[in-house]
Amino acid sequence: MSITIGTIRKWEPAALDEAVRTLLKHRDALVALDDEVTGCKPPASWRGAAADAAAPAHDRIAASVRQLTAEVAAVRTAAADAADSVEALRKSLAETENLAKSNGFTITDGGAVNDTDPPRNVPAGELDVVKAERRAVQLELVERVRELVRRGGDIDAELAKVLGTARGDKLRPGGTLQQAAQTGTKAGDLPITPPPNGKPGANAAWWESLSDADKKAVLKNHPAWIGNLDGVPAAFRDQANRARLKALRASVQKELDGTLTDEFSTPWVYTDAEKKMAAIHAIDKQLAQGDRQLLLLDMSEEWPKAAVATGNVDTADHVAVQIPGMNSTVGGDTLELKQGEMTRLHDEGKSVAGVTWIGYDSPNMPETLGNGQAEGGATDLARFFQGINASRDHDPHLTALGHSYGAVTTEAALKNEGTGVDHTVLFGSPGHVVDHVSELKVPAGSVYTLSADATVSLHGKSDFNNDIVEAMGSLFRTGELDGATELSTDAQGKNQPTNGHSDYLDAGTTSYENIKKIVTGEQDDVVE
User: Fold this and answer.
1) Does residue 116 surpass a pLDDT of 90?
2) 243, 228 in Cβ contact below 8 A?
3) Lowest-confidence range among 158-172, 234-248, 381-395?
4) Spans of biased composition, class Polar residues (predicted)?
5) Which residue has the higher pLDDT, 456 or 478?
6) 423 forms bridges with which residues in the sheet?
7) Phi-psi region of 320 (alpha: psi -120 to 50; beta: other; left: phi over 0)
8) Considering only CA atoms, which of 303, 346, 353 is closest in space to residue 328?
9) Residue 306 in contact with residue 294, Cβ under 8 Å?
10) Which domains does the chain have, with CATH numbers?
11) Which DSSP helix (H) or strand (E) runs through 75?
């Protein structure tokens, strides 16, 4: 029988729980027969034809009791696992249905996601954006439904496999009845279904569908499954990645211990192991400060990737993600500097979680003239944004902060539908990859730009742009982003002007105050 959403809706874990209790009683009763089975073994002093027949008969009876004990224990364990899994699966289905209902969709027994209550009286200028947002929600619901059906099918198939093993007398336990029960218990454990490695919505549904025991088992035995899995809550990703970091540290140290160096080594050329260890030290330094979450840890390529949050991404009202630009590496000073800026936003006391995302291959100076690295990182960044919303019961106010070439990467990511980004701030951008904000899949009026374009006089003879990176980059890309709101970087009241490419988030500047207001949902108070 194929599993559908209608099937899952009809499943009753309580009935399985009752069966588990009954099977437990039978298992315990069988184990209690151990002394009787042993005690009725023919005495060694018995001789004759009857004795010769009694011994194998006893062995057959004892083997049958052991077999039955193992089978009952296996079915009991499988039924208990299935009951827990079905309960978690139905909870995940309920959360998916709540998401559907709150957005005007319904889910049929067959798994179709229907738009039954679209918003009315949408202003004409916002219609395309609203349609795109609803398509994104519908796609997430479709992903979740598919994963729930897949997970339900796996639970059903694994339980059926154990039942088939018990029915077919395939267990061959030895030893005492207690040992036979242990053999059956081990055989009855239902394996944990690996994640789909799908889109964030599917990943979220998979994680929600696991029982608490299965989640603990994944964290203990398979942390690599979820450390970088967009759609899994931040707290669990952090826990998994910290465990992975410990193992990576030992592995990289072993690699470094086996590296031979000589007098001809080039001191400024780093080996992959040295890059990894530098990244590990930089991450360690952040985590040691407390109130941090490690949301991305990838050392599979030449340059390590990581994302660190200050604050709790799972519960914060506002989540801001900064994407740094040229020459950004985890093992250099980028993570410390950028996370310092995000921590400053967190410390404003407005329930902000600040994330630094170094999840793409940041370009060097010549590479900034092209869009290759930005396009390469765009998909992963879009999924990271999507995963934040998919992992939470209620979406936070999500802001993307793209600095320098990170602004180019951010724009490329926001060409994807369904990122869930509410506001976008692009500062120090070396040009733009779109001509108008309408090419980005974001809410109307939600994109802001900042440029440190105050001129500086040199002895009264010439002027130049404060942000030379922005000025040079604009020669190779669109210089202005039409439709975006340009915010002030000049001196305003007690706030200082922004004096260079790396100073937009310096405390006490107008640019910082403007960015802070966007992040904390106070857009009406920005200075243009």
Assistant:
1) yes
2) no
3) 158-172
4) 488-501
5) 478
6) 399
7) beta
8) 303
9) yes
10) 5-221 (no CATH), 282-525 (3.40.50.1820)
11) helix 49-102
